[in-house]
Design brief:
It is built from 17 helices and 18 strands. The protein has 439 residues and is an alpha/beta fold. It has a five-stranded antiparallel β-sheet. The chain has a five-stranded parallel β-sheet with strand order 9-12-15-8-16.
């Protein structure tokens, strides 16, 4: 008979952590928790009686079976520590939490337990008044996890995403969570700059350096000393000017226009572009050496059409910012109309739509008629398959018919569809396979 190895005495260790911490078995059961964990999630029903995914996610199954990355399972497979960003339910509401899992071995060297430490995100909040970046969708959470990873380092970051996805907001969040947070955040819009203006804006100039230079001007590189320099739309810098930026990054030194004295560049670089820079390199319109310099840690920002779960939350936040004293609210039908739109302008377009609707709405509620004409809110929904609604059928047959209908009309990825149906990916694919087999 195999004896279960004795549980290590970790109570004192857990209470030594300032953040919530738990000891978990390989079966996901919580064996011990510190006081901070109890404050966040309430009292645990007894050692070994509750599973971690039940407490933190309100799931009925492990999070890796519900379409999320499970640090415990990954740590169990690799035998190494793991970190991942999750959205947890707490007594204070939903919170983005960085979960760090450390495997613990028994005397024989076998991984038997896992120490999990949970640290609240410094750069985001899933609630409208939580501050920082706002969202709870899987696409947003994946992006946020990368932001959390890189913020505390000095690595150069390249933010890529469509226009209006909030690249400058993410850059500010990286700066605010970095060791340089007490320094300045200095943005430079690179679009449309001539060679002379680009050089002067970036490096500054001495008095008399050119016609109209009546006094010395400090450049943005110098202004960003000790902080973060954010180059927005770096892909729009003409090829001839890219070498000047490359020289700055390679030598960490510069001279003001018209000056001879060298100065040291002391800043953290974050770049952003809506263009596909890798494709531009292949086409010869962006320097390959500069691309590798700025692309140390790339982060892709998801478009709004991939953040369906965030639309209502983002609208609430934007309405509060548009009219702080008495923010208007969305009628459920209005929100449904918004969810049927692709938003080519992303969050920036959403804000413009809501600001216009706020001016049109006389009451405290934004109705569908307050939206622009391109929103087909009055369109009738597509009919269900013939005989679907006027027959009494077994529930299993109703489910099969509905799955056939929704599969034929869903244009997104299958993971998104599974999430909308409230199913794990495993269950979803099993049901789809059964439908195909029946056909």
């Amino acid at each position: 008979m195999t004896r279960t190895p004795p549980l290590p005495d970790v109570t004192a260790l857990l209470n030594g952590f300032q953040d919530p911490a738990v000891l978990i078995g390989s079966d996901y059961r919580i064996l011990a928790a510190n006081r901070r964990y109890g404050e966040k999630h309430g009292p645990i029903g007894g050692a070994g009686r509750e599973h971690c995914y039940q407490v933190s996610h309100h799931y009925a199954r492990p999070c890796d079976e519900a379409g999320e990355t499970c640090p415990l399972r990954n740590s169990q497979r690799s035998g190494q520590p793991q970190r991942v960003l999750h959205l947890h339910y707490t007594a204070q509401g939903e919170e983005h939490v960085e979960v760090e899992t450390l495997p613990l071995r028994d005397a024989a060297g076998e991984v038997r337990w896992f120490l999990e430490i949970m640290r609240q995100s410094e750069v985001a909040g899933p609630a409208p008044d939580g501050g920082g970046l706002v969202g709870r969708s899987p696409a947003f959470t994946r992006m946020l996890g990368l932001v959390e990873r890189v913020a505390g380092s000095e690595a150069s970051v390249l933010l890529q995403g469509e226009s209006g996805t909030g690249k400058e907001l993410v850059a500010k969040a990286i700066h605010a969570a970095s060791p340089r947070a007490s320094g300045p955040f200095v943005p430079l819009e690179c679009s449309g700059l001539s060679e002379s203006l680009f050089e002067s804006e970036l490096f500054g100039h001495e008095k008399g350096a050119f016609t109209g230079a009546q006094q010395r001007k400090i450049g943005l590189v110098e202004a960003a000393a000790g902080g973060t320099l954010f180059l927005d739309e770096v892909g729009d810098i003409p090829l001839g000017l890219q070498v000047k930026l490359l020289r700055l990054l390679e030598t960490a030194a510069y001279r003001r226009v018209g000056g001879v004295e060298p100065h040291q560049a002391r800043f953290r670089l974050v770049c952003a572009s809506h263009r596909d820079l890798a494709q531009m390199v292949a086409q010869g319109s962006f320097r390959q050496d500069l691309y590798y310099r700025i692309n140390v840690f790339p982060i892709s920002l998801p478009p709004l059409r991939q953040r369906g779960e965030d639309l209502g939350l983002l609208a609430e936040v934007l309405l509060q910012r548009i009219q702080p004293a008495a923010p208007k609210r969305l009628h459920p039908e209005t929100l449904a109309c918004l969810r049927g739109y692709l938003f080519p302008g992303n969050v920036r377009e959403l804000r413009n739509i809501l600001e216009r609707a706020t001016l049109l709405a006389d009451g405290d509620t934004i109705l569908p008629q307050h939206l622009p004409a391109e929103f087909s809110c009055g369109a009738q929904p597509e009919a269900l398959p013939a005989g679907f609604s006027d027959q009494v059928l077994p529930l299993a047959e109703m489910e099969r018919r509905y799955l056939r209908w929704v599969l034929a009309r869903h244009g997104g990825d299958k993971r998104s569809l599974a999430r909308q149906l409230g199913l794990s990916e495993r269950t979803f694919y099993r049901k789809v396979k059964q439908v195909h087999n029946d056909d």
